[in-house]
Amino acid sequence: MSNSENSQSSASVAPTAIVHPNVKLGKNVVIEDFCIIGYPPKGYQPGELETVIGDDTHIRSNTIIYAGAALGSHCHVSHYVFIRENTNLGDHCSVGVNVVIEHHCQIGNNVRLQAQAGLCEYTVLEDDVWLGPRVITTNVPHPTCDKAKECLNGPVIRRGAILGAAVTVSPNLEIGERVLVGAGSVITKSTEDGAILFGVPAKKIGEVEGVKCQYELMPQSPYKTDGAAPTDAPARRVPFADLGAQYQRHKQEFRLAMDRVILNNRFINGQEVAEFEQSFASYCKTAYAIGVGSGTDALELALMGLGIGQGDEVITTPHTFIATAEAIALSGATPVFADIDPLTYQIDPAALESKITAKTKAIIPVHLYGHPAPMPEILAIAKKHGLRVIEDVAQAHGATINGQTVGGIGDVGCFSFYPGKNLGAYGDAGAVTTNDSELAARIAKLRDHGRSTKYLHQIIGRNSRLDTLQAALLNVKLKHLPKWTASRQAAAAHYQEKLAGLPLTLPAVAEGCEPVYHLYVVRCQDRDGLSAFLKANGIDSGVHYPTPLHLQPALAYLGYSAGDFPRTEEAAANILSLPMFPEITRDQIDYVAATIQRFFQA
Fold it and tell me: 395 and 537 share a domain?
C-alpha cells in the first residue's frame, strides 16, 4: 500500500511495504518487503507529519520508520531497523541490522551504525562517527523517577569519534572529536578531543595522533593527518564571536528546554519565566528580577518605574550603544553626557558631577565592555545630590566591584540578553533587577499592560514580557554562565600575555574590579589598517563604537558638537575589539596575536 508523494516517480516500493501519506520519496529510493514508512507516532494521524527519504537511499526488509523522520541521500538502512519520529539522518549513512534509533536524534553525514546499536532519545552524532555493534547511548540517570521524561538528555558524540563494540555511553556528556573508545568500555564523563579510551569506567590510555594506518585513508577522513591540505581548503578563520560553538555543545539541553515549553503550551508567562527571574535575582544578589522584552525595554521601564520623564535630565556616557540615550529620550527626559576615563572607558565621576543641574533626576552608568563603572564614586555623588542610579548592565553579567555584583548596586539594574551577550537568548530579551519591592511591583505591572490580574489594569503599561521560550533557554544558559565567564577571563589573560610589548593599549582593570570581558578592546593608532590586515588573514574584529552618541544624527537636537567630549572621541577613533567568546581557544588567540605582530613588523 502506498500513498506517498513521489514526484520523481522512480522509487521502487515492494508490494508488501506500507508507505503512509505525506512521505516524500527521492529519486531511486528502494523500499523492500514488509517495511512501514511514515508510521504515525502516538497522538498523530497518518500523514500529519512529513517523512522524507532522500535520493538513492535503500531500505531493507522489515524496517519501520516513523512519521516525522528524515533520511538524507545515499543512505543504506539494513533489515529490522527501527527509526522514531523527529530523528534526522544526514547523507551517506549506513545503519546496520536491528539498530534502534529513538526519537529526536540528530545524526550527521557519513555516520556508520553497526548491528544492534541503540541510540536513546536526544542523542547527537556528528559527521563521520562510527559506532560498533551493540553500542548503547543513555539519556536519563534515574529512569524510574516520575519526572524522568522531563530530564532526557542524551550524549553528544563529536565528529570522527569511533566507539568499539558494546560500548555504553552515559547521559548528558560529550565525546570529543576523533576519540577512539575500546570495545566494552563504559563512558561516564565527557572526553577531550583525540583521546584513546578503554575500561569500565573508561580512562584515557593514549592519543589518536600516535596511531597510524598503513593504508591510505579516504580523502575526507577526519583522521587524515598527512599534512597535505586539500586545494580548496578555506583560509584559517577566527570569528568575532561563535554562537554556533555554544549551541553545538549544549543543543540537547536547549532543545529539551524548548520542547517542554512547546509541549505544555505555556508560551506567555509560563513557569520558566518565574524560575528564571528567581534564579537570575539570586545570581545578581538582588531581591527581585523582572523579565522583560529587551535590554532597551529594561531601561525604559526602569525610567518609567522611577517616574522620570518630561522636563527631567539623566546623565550618562556618550561612549555606549544608542539604546542608553534612546531610552532616556523615549521617556521624555533629556540625555546629558559626561566624558569617560580614557583607561577603563567608563564614565568619569568628576565629569559626571559637573553636569548636574536642578533638572537632573538620575545617572545611568554603563558597565561597558564588561568592566564595572566606578560605582562607589557614582553612588556618593548620587547621594549628595539626591539622584537615582540606574545601572546599564547589558555587557556585564556577573561583573563585580569590591565584591559587589553589578546590577544590584544602584537603585535598579537593566540587563540585555541579546544573543551575543555574555548571557544571551535566541532573540531579544532583558531583565530589570532591584532590591526595592515597590519598584519591582510597579515594573512588573508596566511590562504587562499595567495589570494586576488578567483584565484589571491599574496603570498604563506596555507589552514587554519575557518570552517563555527565551526564559527556558536562559535558565539553561545561566547554569553555565560562571564557567563561560571564567573562560572569557582566561582568554583575556592569554591575550594580555601574547600582546604585551606591542604598540597597542591593552584593557586596563580598575582597582577592586573583576570584569567579565564581554569585549576585549585594544587601542591602535592605525586601527583601520590593523582591522583590514586581520580581515585579510581570516580574523574578524569590530569597533564598539565608531560614532559617539553626541555626534549621532538622531541626537543632534541636543546641540552637541565635535570636540565636546575629547576622550570619548579619541577612543572612538582608535579602539578595536578582538575576537572574544567563551569557546575561543588558546591556539586561536595565539594566531590572532601572531597576526597582529606581523602587522607591526610589515
Answer: no
